Known about the structure:
This protein has helices at about 10-20, 25-30, 40-45, 50-60, 85, 90-100, 115-125, 170-180, 185-190, 200-205; strands at about 65-70, 75-80, 135-140, 145-150, 155-160, 165-170, 195-200. By secondary structure, it is of the alpha+beta class. Strand 4 (about 145-150) and strand 5 form a beta hairpin. It contains 10 helices and 7 strands. It has a 5-stranded mixed beta sheet, covered by helices on one side. It has a two-stranded antiparallel sheet with strand order 1-2. It is globular. The protein folds into 2 domains: about 10-90, Orthogonal Bundle (Arc Repressor Mutant, subunit A); about 110-205, SCP2 sterol-binding domain (Nonspecific Lipid-transfer Protein, Chain A, 2-Layer Sandwich).
Amino acid sequence: MTQRTYQDACGAARTMDIVGERWALLIVRELVFGPKRFGDLRAGLPRASQNVLSQRLRELEQSGIVRRVQLGPPASVHAYELTGRGQQLEPTLIELSRWGAGLPAEPDAEMSTDAFMLLLKALYRPPTDAPLTARLGLRVGADAFEVEVGPSGISVARGRTGEVDVTVTGTVATLRGVMFAGTPLRSAASAGEIEVHGDLGAAERFFRLFSPPPGGETP
């Protein structure tokens, strides 16, 4: 299958020639925080068929956005990761995530773990009265992330790279409820919906650093 083209010299049009096909940009989203095996990509994009996902990966490889790599021990398996050119799309994805957070979502729409972590980068609001610097571990399903926040911004890394102030474990849906829908963290922890290991107060302060755009619904 040949990729369609707008045949337009505009930079935006040329970008859409590469990532404008259905699922292409979402594949990039799923790879922002590190390489993934094909099965992991399918888990993050469950509505994309295997054939379509394979086709988009081939197209992104041919365009220099994605490359195949081999993950090392203990499991030597093939995976996909973004090239340097592909990583340059992260700011665009963050802006799209921020803009889209103000739009209503379908009632049964799901959000992948990587989409949720990207949303954190999009909706981080550092406090102006008392600057906070904190490092939090987030465990969502089989994934673990380290999130560091400070006056100058937020960083998200898959895996554990150092000491954290507190570790929070929960589903994407539960974490979204605490961050954006007003569910108290202590209530979610008491109900067993979220596990908190470490400084509960630090976790509560962290969760208050994220808010949807004015007038927006729960992202």
